[in-house]
Specification:
The protein is of the alpha+beta class. The chain is about 55% helix and about 20% strand. Among the domains are: about 105-205, 2-Layer Sandwich (Tetrahydropterin Synthase, Chain A), CATH 3.30.479; about 210-260; about 260-295, no CATH class. A hairpin with a 5-residue loop joins strand 6 (about 105-115) and strand 7 (about 120-130).
Length: about 300
């Protein structure tokens, strides 16, 4: 019976049809897998392209910033317009540069020669900021590395030029505001290059050890000399005061002497006796002069 059934299935063609269904399902799955990979690859490609374009198209200018646009195809750097804070949309083939226009600080250290050829080392803190309205010109003529090209070299150049005309001691001690004056000149001259120098802070002034010790010793002796002159001036003023006081005393005695008469002396003697008589103690009064005598007053 089983043999005949097997024969009918074979004769009806059922045996040949059954294996075809799994083959068709495998091809469909393979097609779906291939399509999924292509779609995923396309999605990744599109996402990557969008990300790259986003980085080249959308720019955010932060607080205190200023944007400068460079047209690649035509026009070059835009110098008459500054892109302000916020989101800016730019064509992907153009270039967009952001500058920080807030006050910034850069540290500088260099060596200059005085008029006697002695080296003096300065450590500075330079406070600066680019001019907002001329940031386009700054970008066109100098570039983003303007600090290394303008700020530091210009400040150091001006300081070297003026320090070379001064004595080492004047620079080291800022005698009569010499160093302060040089700093002011450096600020004025450097601020003409699209950048404003707010201030130049002297962090340290260093001289060779021997020169520093010589200046320190000289200043110590100078302070001692000034202290001696001060004491001498004080003594002279004290002597003058005593002379004036003595002259005043002598003048007063002359005036008193001209006013002393015999009647006045007699009256003063009587007044003294009256005052002494008020006491209960025994007294001996000795008076010299006219009508003066020796009295022994015993008052019970």
């Amino acid at each position: 019976m089983s043999a005949s059934l097997f024969s009918r299935r074979r004769d009806d063609g059922l045996e040949d049809e059954l294996p075809e269904e799994p083959a068709r399902g495998g091809r469909l799955m393979r097609t779906m897998r291939a399509g999924g990979k292509a779609a995923a690859f396309a999605l990744v490609t599109v996402s990557l392209a969008a990300f790259i374009l986003w980085q080249r198209v959308v720019y955010v200018v932060p607080a205190g910033g200023a944007g400068v646009l460079y047209h690649t195809l035509s026009g070059g750097t835009i110098t008459d317009y500054v892109y302000g804070e916020g989101i800016q949309l730019i064509f992907p083939w153009d270039r967009f540069t952001i500058y920080d226009t807030r006050v910034q600080v850069v540290l500088s250290e260099f060596t200059a020669l005085t008029n006697k050829g002695l080296p003096i080392q300065l450590r500075l803190a330079i406070r600066y900021h680019p001019e907002y309205d001329t940031v386009g010109l700054l970008h066109q003529r100098v570039g983003p590395d303007y600090v290394a090209k303008i700020v530091q070299p210009q400040v150091e150049s001006v300081l070297r030029r003026y320090i070379g005309k001064e004595e080492p001691e004047a620079i080291y001690t800022n005698k009569e505001g010499v160093l302060s004056s040089i700093i002011s000149r450096a600020i004025e001259e450097t601020s003409e290059k699209f950048v404003t120098i707010e201030d130049i802070i002297i962090r340290e002034v260093s001289l060779p050890e021997q020169m520093r010790e010589a200046i320190t010793t000289k200043l110590a002796f100078q302070q001692q000399a000034e202290a001696y002159e001060y004491r001498l001036a004080a003594e002279l003023r004290e002597a003058e005061r005593k002379r004036i006081e003595a002259e005043g005393t002598a003048a007063a005695q002359k005036i008193i002497a001209r006013g002393l008469t015999q009647d006045l002396l007699r009256w003063e003697a009587i007044r003294v006796e009256a005052e002494l008589a008020k006491s209960n103690n025994s007294k001996m009064i000795i008076m010299n002069g006219v009508d003066a005598g020796r009295f022994n007053l015993n008052v019970p």
